[in-house]
Every structure is written in structure tokens, then in C-alpha cells.
Structures
1.
Amino acid sequence: MLQKPKSVKLRALRSPRKFGVAGRSCQEVLRKGCLRFQLPERGSRLCLYEDGTELTEDYFPSVADNAELVLLTSGQAWQGYVSDIGRFLSAFHEPQVGLIQATQQLLCDEQAPQRQRLLADLLHNVSQNIAAETRAEDPPWFEGLESRFQSKSGYLRYSCESRIRSYLREVSSYPSTVGAEAQEEFLRVLGSMCQKLRSVQYNGSYFDRGAKGGGRLCTPEGWFSCQGPFDMDSCLSRHSINPYSNRESRILFSTWNLDHIIEKKRTIIPTLVEAIKEQDGREVDWEYFYGLLFTSENLKLVHIVCHKKTTHKLNCDPSRIYKPQTRLKRKRPVRKRQ
């Protein structure tokens, strides 16, 4: 049982209405849901709206806050988005049966989870003001934000910059751990990293849909896709989100992790510290460590459900820790002419 209640959005199979329900366990949410929809608790169960996965007590803690669940009674079934889509298509006339079958086939093959997720996000956001950019064009999106933020891209760029700055603060806290002899070198490396980060505006372009293609992690419309987990066998489906669409998506996007594949605290910073201590005349390749700490070379955007620390097993590349040493050619002595 969880110490803190988890909030979810709950709907019954035959009801268009959704209610917010909070509980410390799957059974508690089920009980409250049955009470809310006046359904029998015996034989009822909960499943994920997105793909129909049935919830158990063991699986319940990994469910994201505000996830959408479906309450099923005995004899009822839910196959995920395909159930809603099939019902929607069935509203057309009989000549559309072929279309219904073709659509169901697309949503039932090996790539179905990705298609279901993208289609659901599209249907959820189709009526939202995604194209709007300024506070004047979409006031609800900016609710709760300081008045200095006048554009969506500006705020999301700031959000990314804040994350990168927090990584820099972590690195900046280490000089006292390297010893007096190595402190000067550590501060030199740190200064080089700071200068480069300032020159690229702390890579805030990663969240800015208006940035050039190579500088952002989203589509020009603002769609982000989960780039994890790094153990893909444990993920049921790929997640996507457009924080530019509405206030709820913007807030939810803040829970996604800009995660290091090679871990920052356990691997990168300790390796950098050790390299400075043991450099023995060699020059530490600070740009290699800069790439691992602050750039998409090692940073991946990951949905909170897919964020698994236990899957990180990578080490820094030993061949890139120091810069290659240039060998000076020995000058041959000039032979005296006889």
C-alpha cells in the first residue's frame, strides 16, 4: 500500500463521464469507483484506458498520477483505444464496414501500441489551441505562470535551461572533493563548460519547437516522444505529449525526465573527478564530459513511467577521458659534410 494516495481519472465502460479518484491501493480505487458509479464491487476490476492492461496491486504503484482508468464489471472487456475507435467508426453507415475492419487491423498488429498512443493524443488534443504561441492567443495555457512569460516557446525554453543549470550546479559542488592540488584544474574545466553552456544558452532549444531541427527534441508542432526506457522490453507502449497544446499537458510534461543514459552522479562526475586527480601530465577532455552531462548525446527525454534507474549499466569511454597526446618528432642531427 502506498504512503501517499495516487490520483487517477476513472470512467465506467458505459459512461462518458470521468471522475477523479485517489487511493493508496488498487482495491481502494476500485471500491471508490464502484461507489461513485453505483456498480457492484464483486467481479469488477480496473484497467488502463490506453491499452486495456488489467491493474493488480503489484502494478498499481507504477501507474502514473492522473492516468486514465476504465472500471469494468463482470463480463465486460476493454481493448484500449481500439474499443473507442471501433465504436466511433461503427456510427457510420454499413458501407464503412471495410474501413472499420482495416482500421482495427492497423490497431492490432505489432506496432499497435505506438499507433494507439499517437491516435489517442491526436484525438485528445485536436480541439486544443496547439498552434497558438502567445499569452494573448491562449490565456488558459499560461495560468499559474509569471507574467514575464509571454510565449509558449519562451517558457518551455526556460524550463529546459533550468534543468541544464541544475546539472551544472551539481558539478559545481564538487571542487572541494578533489583535493587542493587538483582544485585549480577542476575549476578550469568547470569554467570551460560554463562558457560553452552560456554560448548555446544552456541548450534551451531542446524544448523550443521554433528551434532548428537539430537543436530540438520535438516536431515543429511541439510533439515530444518518450526516448526510453533503455530496456524497451519493459515498456508496453511509446508515450508522446504536446506541452504546447493545453495547460494540463504543460504541467504533465514537467514530470517527464531529461535523463542521463550514462548516469551523472554515479558515473560521469566521479569519473571526471578521478581523471583530474590521476591525469599525470595528460589533459582531460572536458568536451567529452560536457557532452555527457549537458547535451542530447547522453540526455534522453523519458516518460516518468519509463524512468528506471536500474537499467543504467554504462560506463564512460576510457579512450575519450583524456585528449590524445601529440608526439613531437625528434630532429635528426645534421651530418657534417666531409
2.
Amino acid sequence: MGADNQTWVREFVLLGLSSDWDTQVALFALFSVAYLLALLGNVLIVLLIRLDGRLHTPMYFFLSNLCLVDVSYATSIVPQMLAHFLAEHKGIPYVSCAAQLFFSLGLGGTEFVLLAVMAYDRYVAVCDPLRYPVIMHGGLCARLAVTSWLSGSVNSLVQTTITFQLPMCTNKYIDHISCEILAVIRLACVDTSSNEVAIVVSSIVLLMTPFCLVLLSYIRIISTILKIQSTEGRKKAFHTCASHLTVVVLCYGMTIFTYIQPNSGPSVLQEKLISVFYAILMPVLNPMIYSLRNKEVKGAWQKLLGQLSGLMSKLAT
């Protein structure tokens, strides 16, 4: 077989979470409900922020971006996974696999940078509240958001390009729920050490650097909060950061565990479960975390529901 024939794979086959039919049907039902909840929760949060003038602040501007990232990330993976649960042949074309890797990797990178941006926003709000409106002006917020999206996209373009230049020989079975970068690299029939180095470098740039910035921001935030003399003041200051801090802990923890050491990292099963966590559970949890733990969002919900109730009463009469 010639080198050209060995290099070109027209289609990959995703092995998914299980080969048992009953298990696949059960997972289809469970993940379908979770995906719909993720779509509904994140879209409603974005609409709420758009409709309520009290939420037109930098914090909620970045939150709306986070919701869009979560919805897009879930959509890049979950619909195809749901289709494969009910399909006998679980193939994905070469080009579609590359596109899926590009979008999922890019959106994942965008989320990590965005979380660092949100930590900086909370740092300014707590540590320099009097200058907050001047520092976090609309132009800066827009530039920070664009930087988040661009950094994730550029990294993804580079990683996807070098990954799909690898010769796959006759290997086409991806032992994963999606075209995840480590799973695709394992198919290569050449030495992939340079790709693994590239993953570590991009992880340092787009994962560890934002994580360190988040850590520094929260060290300063906690230090400032502890200096506040009134208990009520400390509570209020901590409350402004609680939701974001919860999301940061959930989001960064598993990814650091997965990608910093690709050679000695988690098992294939753990990789699959981590992907399910990010593709389904995080998009479901984020709107709940920000809604249940945030007085402003709850107040906006109550106002909107009150307006809808009043409108329905008028229509009924």
C-alpha cells in the first residue's frame, strides 16, 4: 500500500460510550433532556441580560458571552453524539471530524480566557470599586471579549491543522464520543511527540496562563475582602464573586487534569467522561449557578415573570 493511500482516511468511526443498545437508548434519552436544558438555560440567560437594563454591566456582558460559548460548545458535540446513539454505523467524515475538533477546541480555549477576563472584572469591582466604571468601560469590555474569542480560534486553527496533517494509515476507529484531539492523535502511525509538545505549549498559553491570572485576581480579591471591617460588607463583596469562583473551580480543574500531561494523563474512559462533563453538564450547570446564587439575576427573573403574568392577565380579560 502506497504512502498516499495510507495517509488519507475518508471517514472515522466513533466508538462512543457504549456498544450495548439498551444503554445507548437510555443515554440518548438522558443526554437529549440535558442538551435541551442547556440550550434553554443559556439562551434564557442571554435574553434576560438583553431585556433587563439593570444587567447591562460588564459582568453580565461577559456572562452572556460565556453562555454563548457553552451553547456553541455543546452544539458542536452533542447532536452528533445523540445521532450516533441510535445509528448502527457511527461514522463521521474526515472533514466533519476536523471541523468538530476545530470548533470544540476553539470554544474550549475561548471559555478559559473568558473566565480570566471575568476574574479581572471581579478584581476591579472589589479592589477598586470607585474607578470600576472608568476602568471597565464599554470599549475595553468589547476588546477583552474579542481577544477571548480570537485567542481560542487561532489556537484551535493551529492545533487542528497540525493534527490532521498526521498520517492516519488505516486507523479510523476513534475511541471517544467526538473528534477530541488526544483521541485523534492516537490514530497516527508516526511519532506524535511534537504534537504532544504543541498541546502542552497551547495548554500553558490558553489554560495555565489564564488560570494563574484567575488565581492572582482571587488572591487580591480575598485579601481585600478580609480587610473590610463590617461582616455585611465582606458578605456582599464575596457574593459578587461566588458564582464565578464556582464555575472556575469546575471548569479549570478537569481540563488541567486532562491536558497538561497527555502521556501520563487519564484513561480513555476518563477522557470520555470529562468530555461529557464539559459538553453537557457544564452548559446545564452554569445558568443554574448564576441564577440560583445571584440576587440580580433572580430579581430580573422575577421582574420578567411579573411582566409576563401581567400581560397574560390582560390578554385573558
3.
Amino acid sequence: MAQKTALIVFAHQTPGSFNAAARDTAVQELSDQGYRVLVSDLYAMKFRADATRDDIKGELKNPELFEYGDETMFAWKENRLSDDITTEHQKMIEAELIIFQFPLYWFSVPAILKGWFDRVLTRGFAYSLAEMFNNHHFKGKKAMLSFTTGATQTMFQPDGINGDINIILWPLQNGILHFCGFQVLAPQIFYSPAHSPPAVRTSMLEGWRARLKGLMKEKPLSFAPIELFDLSFQAGFLLKPEVKKEQEQHEFGITTGHHLGKPLPPDNQTRAGSRK
């Protein structure tokens, strides 16, 4: 049997950080399980965040009007992408599990990680109009977010000052990971480790290690399958009429994003199988 491979995309500047400790915990536990663990330490790699002409070797298809998505797609097909992108592509191809480890910045990811998404998830390689959401060859792979917050858990509740963490996570988990076809595992959220005593931080890491032991057996988060939609420009890529009709009997919307004017399904982006 071939050795399993996991990729950790790490975005923190400091080796002594809690994020680094979470990364190291994952590396050790997954290695103990027999995984070959790859780590993309973006700051150590000085990974370039800006998506530019430099990502393409050779001539452009349309030099008069540079369109990054089109040009990188052509370059991917012709093996003309910059070496740092193709290296990350190969890691993604080899990995059946990808963990993104980072601190939450401005309700999102650090710029260097956003740049990784922008540059590495190349059109054609990671998605297309014909291959997106659960209709992509990445659907056999699992991905998840593991991150720290500066705020406490109560601040990310529906009645907390920051608002519902499920809404905050929707663009990342649906708009990036699920869009590219991954089975998205529930996020590992370390709430406010910087303001927690050492014993609590230790407990957080122990909980992460325990979860990693059964991680690949977890049920993924629930998203609206692409089959529920009319996939045509004429129909506007909307839910099929019969699907909308059937949903009328449900108490909650389908997902955090596809709420259909109903209450949001509780914990849709933080817990698998949460819809009632």
C-alpha cells in the first residue's frame, strides 16, 4: 500500500508561536500514523503573495490585455507556470489531506496565505466551469482550516460582538475549499490562545492531537450539492424549481449561504451533519 501524504500550509511568522505548536503537533501525530507530511512554511519560503505576470514563463496569449486567470490557465496547460506554483501543485496532487494552519486576520487569512490561494489554485488545475464544487477531481481529497483567534469563543457567537463564526467561515470553506472540490472537514478553532493560561494552551494542543487520531474518519461539512442547481447561464445557475419547492418543508435553510430566507442551519460551517 502506498504511503499516505498530508500537506500543511503554514502561515505564521514566528517559530515560537502557538500556530507553530499546532503545526508541529499535526506533523508529529500524522507522522506517527504513517503519513508522509509535507509542510509549506510560507513565510520561511518567502512565498510571493501577489499574482502577477511573473507567474508565467514565456509569451502571453494576449499581451495587450493581461487577464491573470486566462493566462495562468494556458501556462498550466503548457507547463509554463513559475516554479514556486508548480511545486505547490505537486504537493497538492500527492496529498490526500491538506491542513491550512494560520491566525485569523481581519475575519480571514493572512495576506501570504490569500496569495497562496490566488496563485496556486490555478484555473484549470483547481477549478473550471465544468469542474467545480463536488464535481471536481479534488473530491477525493480532504481539506480543513486550523486557526487561532484573538477573540474569545463567546465573541464569535450569533449574539457576540464579532457575529456568527459560521458566517465568517463561509467564504473560505465554501468559496475556496468546497468550490475546488475538496471534502471540507470541520475547522479546528483555537480560541484566544494568547489570552489563555499555559495549562489551557496545553489542553488545546492535546485536544488537537486527539482529534487528529480519527480525523480521516470524520464526516465532512454539509454543502449544497451542485446537482441541486440548473447549471446554465440561461437559468442563472439557480436552484432548480423542484428543489426550492421541496425545501419549503424544512425549518432551516440548506446551508449558511443557501439559507433561502430561513434561519441558518446551526453550526453549518463548524460541525458536520448539523442541518435538521
4.
Amino acid sequence: MSVPQLLLCLSLSMLCISSKPTEKKDRVHHDPQLSDKVHDDAQNFDYDHDAFLGADEAKTFDQLTPEESKERLGVIVGKIDTDKDGFVTEGELKAWIKKAQKKYVYDSVERQWQEFDMNQDGFISWDEYRNVTYGTYLDDPDPDDGFNYKQMMVRDERRFKMADKDGDLTATKEEFTAFLHPEEYEYMKDIVVQVRPQKSAVWGIFNTQTSRDMYSHDGDADEPEWVKTEREQFVEFRDKNRDGKMDKEETKDWILPSDYDHAEAEARHLVYESDQDKDGKLTREEIVEKYDLFVGSQATDFGEALVRHDEF
């Protein structure tokens, strides 16, 4: 993604800020989300579906009729209500969302495990990963697509070694999970922002001069609102030491903030949108009534649905 595209994506995400409790008012965060969809309820509930179900399960629900979605959502509600008191609280929703996201991560690892464990010994070595991923590309010093695969391999090797806790260049399934999803592991978070500040577009993208370079000066036209917003965010929240650029720690706090929990924010959002009697907790009826927010559905062309019975 180019610098202009990246900045545009960031600015668009900030336009979605509203007064609802899903958003943090005083800062804009861009750490790993519960979904790669835009969180804009005025447009659709795709983000909420991915957050509540996990991306793969959300795709399954897209094939169900409204009646089938409501029936299966009712079954899920019984699983979320862990204390069996007939209500779903914010805490129970948060735990469920975290479980859904973990399932998505581990399912992703399972899908890739067999491909990389070439000798089927229950481990994945760096050599196995490198050969499967880069073997054919490394034979061609000048590939047609223009990518520098050797540089990509160096970055992957650095991340693989960090995930490999015992340093034997062989990954267990847990270590391989940390390699593929470093944002899920505390000891891997430094690798997410391990770039050189002098060469990283992200580190300097919010300084005043860069923002001016991202839009066209047509006569005496005022600068776009998003440029003003970006500058304010940079000055007020991101550049903590006020040196005009983002260093490694400032970038880490922006990408992976320790004071913001997306699962908690999404749980609060779902309760806010569904709690009809405003008692701070949800009944099965309140959740099912808002099935389109939680799971969504659409009838297939022939009125048929995919049927599965293994929800978590």
C-alpha cells in the first residue's frame, strides 16, 4: 500500500467516529482490529459479525435465512450466558468475542500447518517454511512482479526466530501461531513495529509537512478536514515527546496500545445497541431481536441454507 493510500485509509477510519460507546473518544487507535471491515453501522454490520462470530463463521451465517439465523443465534446465546442466569452481560460478551477471535487464529494456523510441516514430524523448521514460501522465487534473481523476496525472507526469518522461544529454529504449533499472528502474543509485539524510523512511511506520516504533501493545493483552497484532523491527532496524542516525529515506542503505542481493548469496546457497543430496557444486560429476546447486528443473514437464490452444527 502506498503512502497516500495508507493515509487515506486512516483518515476514512476516523470519519466513522460517533458518540456510541464502541469508540474511544480521546484517541484514534489503529492496532489489530476484530475484523478488517470498516466499523460503520450506517453502512452495514459486517465488522460486528466478524467480531461476534469470527470471520469464517460469519461467512456461514451469510448463507442463512433470517429464521435460521435467529434460531442458531438463540443457541449461541445459551453458550454466552455462562452463569445461566438468563442474561448476557458485557463481561460475558467480551469473553465470547475473545473466544471467537482465538478460534479464528487457531483455525488459520491449522489450515497452514500441514502445508509447511513437510516431513510430518509435528514441528515446522525455518528451512521448511522458507522452502515452501520462497523456494521458487529465490531461484529467480529478477522476478517479473518486482518484489524483493530476499528482503521479505529476511523479515520473516527475524520474526520466526523471535517466535522460536527455545532458539532451535523449529517451531511448535504455539510458536508457529506466534509467528503468524504476532499481535496475539505479548513477547512478539516489538516485531510488529520493528522498522527503521528513517525509512518507514508510517513513522513520519503524520508530521505537518507530510500531511501537506498528501493533498493538492488548488489556488487558495483550504486544506481538507482530514488533514487538519490528522495533524491534531499527531500533535496531541501520537508525538508524545514533541520532537515532530514518531519514534519506536510512540509507534508501538499507536499500533498496539495497552490501554484499549477492542473486545471490550465491541461488547459495550453490542449491549448499547440491543439493550431495549436499558438495564445494562441482554435477554435472549433482545439479542435475537437484533440478529442482523449480531450475525446477519441473507436468503440464498433458492431459499436454501448451509447447515452446520458445530458453533464453537
